[in-house]
């Protein structure tokens, strides 16, 4: 199946897409920086300490310490909530894995196992009787088959040979 677009056109489009993504990424970085500066300028008032007496500076320090304590408490609460949510998500993921099954089941393949090996696998060390199924098969001598083939007509010989080649034990 041939592609409807040439390789050079595909490469050109890919490079254009990468250039556009780079531009958008750089613009996003600039936008985040300006948003951060705007937010900080709203929340933080400039600190004017010039012309203040010692007692006024001490009061200002106390106010700042109180604000830092409040912000630190909020940060701690948010961090605790975040850790709790992370643990809960982890537990839920484990539950999902347990419900779904941890491992992807591989496609099963046919494996040739002898009867002895199968009984050993099922029964373990209890299995002592040897089951040699091939020993119970009727043995056919080559001379007998040649005599049978000679006595049959040509069509029967071809049919017999065709059937023998289709069988799994045919030689």
Automatic annotation (TrEMBL):
UniProt keyword annotations, A-Z: Acetylation, Actin-binding, Coiled coil, Muscle protein
GO CC terms in record: troponin complex
Pfam families hit by this protein: Troponin
UniProt entry tagged with the keyword rRNA processing: no
Source species, domain of life: Eukaryota
SUPFAM superfamilies assigned to the protein according to its UniProt record, in alphabetical order: Troponin coil-coiled subunits (SSF90250)
GO biological process terms on file: cardiac muscle contraction; skeletal muscle contraction
GO molecular function, one term: actin binding
InterPro entries in UniProt: Troponin, Troponin_I, Troponin_sf
Function, in words: Troponin I is the inhibitory subunit of troponin, the thin filament regulatory complex which confers calcium-sensitivity to striated muscle actomyosin ATPase activity.
Subunit field text: Binds to actin and tropomyosin.
Protein name: Troponin I, fast skeletal muscle
Species of provenance: Antrostomus carolinensis
């Amino acid at each position: 199946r041939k592609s409807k677009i040439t390789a050079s056109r595909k490469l050109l489009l890919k490079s254009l897409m990468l250039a556009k993504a780079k531009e958008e990424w750089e613009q996003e970085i600039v936008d985040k920086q300006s948003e951060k500066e705007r937010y900080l300028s709203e929340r933080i008032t400039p600190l004017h300490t010039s012309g203040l007496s010692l007692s006024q500076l001490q009061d200002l320090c106390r106010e700042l310490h109180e604000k830092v304590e409040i912000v630190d408490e909020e940060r701690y609460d948010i961090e605790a909530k975040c850790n709790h949510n992370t643990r809960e998500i982890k537990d839920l993921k484990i539950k999902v894995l347990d419900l779904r099954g941890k491992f992807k089941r591989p496609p099963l393949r046919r494996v040739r196992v002898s009867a002895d090996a199968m009984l050993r696998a099922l029964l373990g060390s209890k299995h002592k009787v040897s089951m040699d199924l091939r020993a119970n098969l009727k043995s056919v001598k080559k001379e007998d088959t040649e005599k049978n083939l000679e006595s049959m007509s040509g069509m029967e010989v071809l049919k017999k040979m065709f059937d023998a080649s289709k069988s799994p034990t045919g030689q």
